[in-house]
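Morning!

This is the sequence you dropped in the shared folder:
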Amino acid sequence: MPRSWSDKRERQYEHVKESYEDRGVKVDKADELAARTVNKERAEDGETKSRKKA
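The structure's back. Tokens below.
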């Protein structure tokens, strides 16, 4: 987990990761999907730098 994540986002990451693992997703894939999910939420909530859309 990146250091820039807040405590809220770290809890969200753990919850999402556990949910994927409970559904039978391998640990490495669950880590990746959970991180992507949290980063997507951060972007939607304006917690990240803006990026230009192509």
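Headline: The mean pLDDT is 88.

More detail when I'm at my desk.
O.
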